[in-house]
Design goal:
7 helices, Rossmann fold, alpha/beta, globular, 239 residues, eight-stranded mixed β-sheet
């Protein structure tokens, strides 16, 4: 580990707004924030620009940036502390374990901003709008909660639209070019480090927001914990 990374990891150990793999947190976030305001998650938050930006815009809501990389979390956490943004916190953990940290209905909203689109063949399961993640979000979100995706990847954007249709989600807003249409206002006007780079490269920025269905999203194939492993075996005489 580089010296600068080590310094940042040591620093976040002292930050009151950074929780690293905390135990016993489901339904306890109101105790951390000392209020019962709605909670928004920024998944794969990186440097936490969106968590901080949303926290500045909406002081009557709580925001939690989630990422596994502590050296990145350090940046947003330090800004939030410096600016006195008590409604912004950071959770260091794997997003695949998100249900360990929030109770049923504890989360009102989720933002997924410039997350890795996992473009290599066979890596689609790692996209944060894959049905296996949407199933997890259902376990922690309030009924009618909103998920936002903002990305420069047309592949992730189209994949998300397909997943929305396949899982019975409801689209709220769908903008194929937020800057070209002059709609980068409010929360959409917040820019991450990567977004600024993408805009300099004249990339198109996509946005879609949607609600999860009331019925539970089905876990298919190997993601179904109740699936018989024998079902994965090829039929006799198969290729």
């Amino acid at each position: 580990m580089g010296h600068k990374k080590l310094i940042k990891f040591q620093a976040i150990d002292t930050f009151k707004n950074v929780l690293q793999y905390p135990e016993g947190m489901p339904n306890k976030w109101k105790e951390h924030f000392k209020n019962d305001n709605p909670i928004t998650l920024e998944l794969a938050c990186g440097k936490g620009e969106y968590s901080v930006g949303l926290g500045r815009q909406h002081r009557d809501r709580n925001f939690i940036g989630v990422d596994i990389k502590g050296n990145r979390i350090h940046n947003g956490a330090k800004i939030a502390l410096t600016e006195g943004l008590d409604n912004v916190a950071f959770l260091r953990t794997h997003i695949g374990q998100i249900t360990n940290y929030f109770g049923k209905g504890e989360v009102a909203e989720i933002w997924i901003v410039f997350s890795d689109p996992f473009l290599k063949k066979g890596k689609e399961k790692n996209r944060l709008t894959h049905f296996r993640f949407l199933h997890q979000y259902q376990q922690i979100m309030k009924a009618g909660g909103i998920i936002h995706l903002k990305t420069d990847s047309p592949v992730l954007y189209e994949f998300t639209l397909e997943t929305i249709a396949e899982t019975g989600c409801t689209i709220i807003e769908n903008i194929a070019d937020i800057y070209g249409k002059g709609l980068a206002t409010g929360p959409l006007a917040i820019q991450t480090f990567y977004e600024k780079m993408h805009l300099e490269d004249k990339r198109t920025i996509y946005y879609v927001s949607f609600r999860l269905p009331e019925t539970e999203i089905e876990l298919k194939g190997r993601f179904n914990p109740n699936k018989d492993e024998a079902d994965d075996e090829p039929a006799a005489g198969g290729a």
